[in-house]
Structures are given as structure tokens and as C-alpha cells.
């Protein structure tokens, strides 16, 4: 019988300071791999025992100019981890999409230690949607279109800065027979915790492992559309499975990644999972005729009633269905607008 342990995928955009045992605490600086100029970005920092952290963005490579700075407090209540918001000004950068530009991102901890990394910056600060009035046009016909811009949080472009936890570190065990076929119903025991399970019909079993055997803190961050949008932690004692409830927010559409990690002696154990969000409209909307008519003549007045959520902004588009006779493609739907390929 052959036993194979399959490692799970690891993804964490972070700079880590791994301490020598029984000396310095674990320090983490985590940020998006692209910082958007003119857009508020969240930076994750962690340092057990530190009082505060200063997050500084400087020009690259000289570090002679401070481009953005913020300070966050760390304490027992937030488990010595927090998100700091920074916004880089466009001053000093060239708005050239072919030019690669970088900044220094640095975290200065209260114990006088530092973490730094070089991060690329971009002027892409949101999304632009273009919508036409018809999917098909004939020669010499007019094309009516509209263009609207959205922030990375999928909100109308303005000066708003939306600022708003959350899986057990598992090992997948695959057990096979000598001929390569899966071995079902094979007992799996994890010591010293006496955790027991058996393999499934496919020869696979999921087991929870705590290398330290002591209490640990499972740190969790959530990333969507290249941004860190939430962070949290959960204290775990011994070997256990943890179920955490996560409320889906609009910032997580159309998909998001959950990144979890914990410190084990002189290494960091991490894992991540990608989650797709079911496409649904975030609210109610109804368009209804005030009076029902079987048909309408050209230039006849049409009266309708719109019912929706209070304070909602509603856009109206009227399309002659005759244009879909020749080409019934390229409808702008909620699913298409939320898909990563469309964005």
C-alpha cells in the first residue's frame, strides 16, 4: 500500500520576519501585489507584543520622499494585527501604461524593527464599462453608447474611500493500493491528538494537524479584485476543526480568496481557498405599466411605474427588440457584468 500526502495550495502576498525560537515575535507585512495610485489600499500588519506600527510608502529606489503614511495601534483586543489604509498621490509618477513604476512599502514596529518590500504601482484605479444601444449595426447607422466608471469596490467614481473573521489547516491524505487504485476504508490516526478518520471510496482523507500541540492563533485575510478587504483571527487550543461564519459583502463580488496562516515554531504554515460568489442582484427592482395596452403606436405616450429600494439610482435603457432578430448576442446582464473576464 502506498501513502501520499498532497500539499494544499499556498498563496499569501506577504513579507514575513521569522523569529528565532523564544526571541522575537512573528512580524507580518501583507499588501496587494499592485498598489493603485489615487485609491485607498489596505495594508495588513501583525506583531505580537508591539504597541503600534507605522506604515510608510516611499519613492523607489532612493527612499528620499514619503508618498503616504499611516499608523495603526496593536493590542490584545485586536490580537496585535490590523489593517492600515494608505493612499498614494499621483504626484511624481508618469501616467504611462508601458512604464513599470515601483515604491517602497515599509512597516516600522514599535520595537524598532522594520519590514519592507518593493511593490509595483498602477494608475488603473477602477473599471470602465461601455454599453451600446444595439448589438448589430448597418452601414451609415448611428451608434449610441454610454460610458460609466466604477471604483475597485464597484461603486461610482468619486472621492469615497470604502473602508470596512472568518478554516482549519488541513492535510489531504491519499492512500493507494500497489496497483495504483484508491484504497477505501483505511483507518488514519493522528498522534498525539488521537484524531481518527478513514479514507473515502477515492482513497482520500482530510486530517487536521497542529504541529505545535499547543494553542495557536489562526490569522485570516480576505482578498478580492487584488485588494485586502478584511482580516481576522481565531484562537485554537489543541487539534480541532473550526467553523467560522462569513457574511458576503458587495466588496467580495464576483469572487474572493480566503488566506489563513499560523506560526509553528520557526515557520509559517499557510493555505488559501478561492470562493466564487453566486451572481444575484443586490436589491429589488420592478418596472410595470400603469395601464395595460395590447400595443403602442409611434410617438404614443407610455406610462410606467418603477419600484425599488429607497435611495437607489436607476438607469433606464429602451431597446427595439427587432435588433435581436439578426444578432441575439452581447446582452449586458448582471452575470456578465460581475464576471472576472468582463472586468
From TrEMBL:
The protein's name: Alpha-2-macroglobulin bait region domain-containing protein
What domain of life? Eukaryota
Task: Write down the Pfam families for this protein, in alphabetical order.
Answer: A2M_BRD, MG1
- Supply the Gene3D superfamilies for this chain: 2.60.40.1930, 6.20.50.160
Please list which residues make up the signal peptide.
Answer: 1-23
InterPro entries reported in the protein's UniProt record: A2M/Complement_sys, A2M_N_BRD, C3/4/5_MG1
Where's the Alpha-2-macroglobulin bait region domain? 188-326
Asked if the keyword Phosphoprotein belongs to this entry, the reply reads: no
Provide the species name. Answer: Muraenolepis orangiensis (Patagonian moray cod)
The UniProt keywords, alphabetically, are: Signal
Amino acid at each position: 500500500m502506498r501513502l501520499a500526502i498532497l500539499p494544499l495550495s499556498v498563496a499569501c502576498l506577504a513579507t514575513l520576519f521569522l523569529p528565532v525560537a523564544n526571541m522575537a515575535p512573528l512580524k507580518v507585512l501583507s499588501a496587494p501585489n499592485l498598489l493603485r495610485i489615487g485609491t485607498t489600499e489596505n495594508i495588513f500588519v501583525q506583531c505580537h507584543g508591539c504597541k503600534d506600527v507605522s506604515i510608510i510608502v516611499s519613492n523607489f529606489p532612493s527612499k528620499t520622499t514619503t508618498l503616504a503614511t499611516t499608523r495603526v495601534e496593536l493590542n490584545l483586543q485586536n490580537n496585535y494585527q490590523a489593517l492600515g489604509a494608505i493612499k498614494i498621490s499621483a504626484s511624481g509618477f508618469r501616467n504611462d501604461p508601458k512604464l513599470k513604476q515601483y515604491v517602497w512599502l515599509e512597516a516600522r514596529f514599535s520595537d524598532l524593527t522594520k519590514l519592507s518590500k518593493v511593490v509595483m504601482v498602477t494608475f488603473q484605479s477602477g473599471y470602465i464599462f461601455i454599453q451600446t444601444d444595439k448589438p448589430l449595426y448597418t452601414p451609415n447607422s448611428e451608434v449610441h453608447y454610454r460610458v460609466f466608471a466604477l471604483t475597485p469596490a464597484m461603486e461610482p467614481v468619486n472621492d469615497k474611500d470604502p473602508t470596512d473573521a472568518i478554516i482549519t489547516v488541513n492535510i489531504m491524505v491519499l492512500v493507494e493500493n500497489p496497483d495504483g487504485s484508491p484504497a477505501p476504508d483505511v483507518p488514519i490516526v493522528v498522534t498525539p491528538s488521537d484524531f481518527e478518520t478513514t479514507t473515502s471510496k477515492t482513497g482520500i482523507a482530510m486530517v487536521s494537524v497542529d504541529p505545535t500541540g499547543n494553542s495557536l492563533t489562526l490569522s485570516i485575510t480576505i482578498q478580492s479584485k487584488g485588494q485586502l478587504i478584511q482580516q481576522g483571527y481565531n484562537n485554537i487550543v489543541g487539534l480541532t476543526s473550526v467553523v467560522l461564519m462569513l457574511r458576503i459583502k458587495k466588496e467580495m463580488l464576483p469572487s474572493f480568496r480566503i488566506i489563513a496562516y499560523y506560526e509553528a515554531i520557526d515557520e509559517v504554515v499557510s493555505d488559501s481557498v478561492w470562493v466564487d460568489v453566486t451572481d444575484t442582484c443586490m436589491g429589488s427592482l420592478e418596472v410595470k405599466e400603469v395601464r395595460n395596452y395590447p400595443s403602442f403606436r409611434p410617438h404614443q405616450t407610455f406610462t410606467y411605474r418603477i419600484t425599488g429600494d429607497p435611495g437607489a439610482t436607476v438607469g433606464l435603457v429602451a431597446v427595439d427588440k427587432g435588433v435581436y432578430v439578426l444578432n441575439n448576442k452581447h446582452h449586458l446582464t448582471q452575470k456578465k457584468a460581475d464576471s472576472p473576464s468582463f472586468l
